Hints:
- By secondary structure, this protein is α/β, with parallel strands linked by helices.
- The chain has helices at 2-16, 97-103, 106-122, 139-148, 190-202, 228-240, 252-261, 274-283, 291-300, 312-327, 347-354, 360-374, and strands at residues 25-33, 38-40, 42-47, 50-56, 67-78, 80-85, 125-130, 156-159, 164-165, 185-186, 207-211, 213-214, 223-224, 244-249, 265-268, 286-288, 391-395, 408-413, 416-419.
- It folds into two domains: 22-78 and 382-419, Urease, subunit C, domain 1 (Roll), CATH 2.30.40; 80-345, Metal-dependent hydrolases (TIM Barrel, Alpha-Beta Barrel).
- Helix content is 34%, strand content 22%.
- It is globular.
- Zinc ion is lined by residues 84, 86, 131, 336.
- Zinc ion binds at residues 84, 86, 131, 336.
Amino acid sequence: MLFRLLLCCLLALPALSFAQAPTATLLRPAAVFDGQELHPGWAVLVEGQKITAAGPAAQLAAPAGARTVELPGLTLLPGLIEGHSHLLLHPYNETAWADQVLLEPLALRVARATVHAQRTLLAGFTTTRDLGTEGAGYADVGLKQAIDEGIIPGPRLLVATRALVATGSYGPHLAAVEDLPQGAQEADGVDNLVRAVREQIGHGADVVKVYADYRWGLGGAPEPTYSLEELTLIVQTARSAGRGVVAHASTAEGMRRATLAGVETIEHGDGGTPEVFKLMKAHGVALCPTVAASDAISRYKGWKKGQGPDPQRILDKHRAVQAARQAGVTLAMGGDVGVFPHGDNALEMELLVQDYGFTPLEVLRQATSGNARIFHLADRGRVAAGLLADLVAVAGDPTQQVQALRQVRLVMKGGVLYRQP
Ligand SMILES: [Zn+2]
């Protein structure tokens, strides 16, 4: 018994070492992507939790006692920023969304989420904007705390907590059952909405997520939910508390109202028209297209890419993304991961390059300096002195080959190595 206890303790040790105190580290890759451009022959010095120097290797001297990590053939880049995740969800082809919300115990969902967090980090995503617990209450706030305190490995989190939906517009739905638990917080009208926004912020929401449209009742096509007045009130209440608002919207009218109300990003955007994208551009609203979620859901429904016609969902997404690009709308990189496996976050970037005509450099900028700017994260997203030492090294050159993002060899967060060659 004692032996088994000791063995348990020994097995637990590697996890504890994640929290070890960082030291000065000189990283010497083949090249550095700084969030904008590739710099062959650069090195990066990390001291404590921050980057203290980045530049040509010959000009960078390591302080006495620093460890040097040679990374031949690797490209060092800023820790990637996932723009749209649900750590409390797992893929819908494993368990349908409604069954996760209604049938899975909270402890099971949280236990899974700890594994999801680790997979996300080890895949090179050192920050994620987690957009709703889908019925798991404020579990994302506790998850974030566990990561920040070094109890479990995971990315830095921006959390949305419960998210806001208009009564009757979300799910799960069973026609014969009243008062079914919902995947988000129902709130409507002036008093109720102000209170709900403040409640969520009080419980730890870094951003407020609102569903500007959804499939009302038992399915069918999405329709707008909140009025422009309600959306404006949500944005004003959140903004007064220093929080931005992100809107789920896939109808042109839902997107139009969310844009006029002053949200910062619109998620999905499938039904966006050229006029709506023009409006988004004029108001500085970014689109997070989540092409990977559309891809995954279509595959779960039997679609085999390249065999037979593309489903309407995929055709809509292509049309919307092209219209957004033509209008000059800023794109955030976020895949709605959770619909597909955590740790597979790079899928969004791969699809944007392979199917949607973006260059690897464009999507790399989106996932680093771009997302950092859109999410107001001035301390990360680039490789530069003074920023957080959130760094990833991949084999090859991801500015030329997006598949290099699957070859993660090193992950550092806040100066601490979580993965190394
Ligand atoms: Zn989502």
